Amino acid sequence: MDWSLIISILLNCLYAGAAALDEDCPTLDDGDSLSQTQLLDRLTHGCRYDRLERPITYSETGQRLPVDVYMRAYIYFMQNLEAHDLQFKIYALLQMRYLDPRLNFRNVSPKRRQPILGEEHLRNSLWMPHIFLANERDSSILGLTEKDILTSISPDGTVIVSNRIKATLYCWLNLKKFPFDEQHCSTVLESWMYNTSELVLHWEQKRPITYDGALHLTEFVLQRSWSNETVINADLSDLRHGAFAGNYSSLSFTVHLTRVVGFYLMDYFLPSMLIVAISWVSFWLQADQAPPRITLGTSTLLTFITLASAQGKTLPKVSYIKVSEVWFLGCTIFIFGSMVEFAFVNTIWRRKKSVPVKKLNSKHILKSTLSPHLLRRRSHARSRSFSGTALHKTADTGSLGGTGFNNYLTINLPITTIKEGQVLDQQRTSRGVQKMDVNFVESAFGSMGSAQSTGAISAASSSQTLTNNNRTESAGHQEEIDLSGWTTLTPQEIAMWIDSRARFVFPLSFLVFNLFFWTFVYCI
């Protein structure tokens, strides 16, 4: 056996295998003579670079370190919050930076000091940290013919990737003080695949969040913004990161927005104030003018409801009460109150009987107006009781055999003393024909004496008094009220009095309502 021949054949095979390996894994020698594309192809060749594996670095103690990814955001444009969908849109440039030692070409091509630039194709050939917007509804990378992606590789292996994106993000609005509300909307970035033991997100130290100088919101004012770094704990119950549990790095930046109320003041609050004030014009119309007052009340109420419903269509249906709803309810109550006031005074105007009032003040007028029948019954009862007492006293003193004889007669309250001469004079003046001679009465009855004759005179006086009482019985109620300090008001006078008071009560109450409302809006 020729061993030399066998050994030569084996050596040839080894040389051929080594040559094949050299062809599959191109060398990095003389990197300065290579083009940018050739250098990148050799750096990212499969024999040296695996794009499915993250960059691996070790500490001085040999511990495996996570990849540090630094983020920066530049906000081009921010669209107004859409309250009915609880979302807002941003157009931004997101930039991430991390170190990949496998792409270090400083020693391979020492003369190449500028970073290697590329677009989407270069990015697709590199390992990229998977970062997603946790509160996004929709997002996309902007671009016309190609996506707006810029990739940069520095000589030390630092990779910078910039993307221009458009994102629609959820923002859970608090509308309790709408339209005087302030909102805090966040943009949340999280690591999707790697937990904190493999990848950690950081904001850049200098100016992590930048806003375009021409950024302007029509309905809101950007007060301030701040950034935050945190760790999200994901478990199998919420599947926040697929089926993998663990701690994931998260970044967020929050904007503080204050709503501009100029639009709502001019298009909602001031018109509603004018509508409420217009409803008070009915207080200057007479209570019996039903058509114009009803037309004015219903038209103002319907106009205000239409105004409020148009403003409320842009808001979501929430379970809590908003400030705008408090204003709507208050104005509705004032407009509806003016219609109720008209119904009240119109009912009073159509009454037939006058109303007795003890005193001319609001308390007694309203009390007498609300319960006129009860007061009328009480007044008649007092009048009848006074008349009955007077008749009883007259009968007792007028009897001829009575022991309680007096020389005066009680006719009604207040008690008035009437003497014999006054009764005869009153009879002569009122009737002119009836004359009574005291001497004739004394001679007719003889032994009965002067006491009995005086009793006859008293009886005659009592008879005349009864006649006078019958004539004035119809006016007894009015005389009693007048004598007791009461006043009678016609229904028309009461209706006009209520309208005159409403002209001041309603504006004053609306002013107090505004005082409490605006104090709550701006001070609480």
From TrEMBL:
Keywords: Cell membrane, Glycoprotein, Ion channel, Ion transport, Ligand-gated ion channel, Membrane, Signal, Transmembrane, Transmembrane helix, Transport. It comes from the Eukaryota. Its main location: membrane. The chain crosses the membrane at residues 268-287, 294-314, 326-349, 504-522. InterPro entries: GABAA/Glycine_rcpt (IPR006028), Neur_chan_lig-bd (IPR006202), Neur_chan_lig-bd_sf (IPR036734), Neur_channel (IPR006201), Neuro-gated_channel_TM_sf (IPR036719), Neuro_actylchol_rec (IPR038050), Neurotrans-gated_channel_TM (IPR006029), Neurotransmitter_ion_chnl_CS (IPR018000). It catalyses: chloride(in) = chloride(out). It is found in: Cell membrane. It is a multi-pass membrane protein. Residues 270-518 form the Neurotransmitter-gated ion-channel transmembrane domain. Residues 459-478 are annotated as: Disordered. GO terms for molecular function: extracellular ligand-gated monoatomic ion channel activity; pH-gated chloride channel activity; transmembrane signaling receptor activity. Residues 459-473 have a biased composition (Polar residues). Residues 1-20 form the signal peptide. Residues 36-259 form the Neurotransmitter-gated ion-channel ligand-binding domain. Pfam families: Neur_chan_LBD, Neur_chan_memb. Belongs to the ligand-gated ion channel (TC 1.A.9) family. This is pH-sensitive chloride channel 2. It comes from Drosophila simulans. The lineage of its organism: Eukaryota, Metazoa, Ecdysozoa, Arthropoda, Hexapoda.
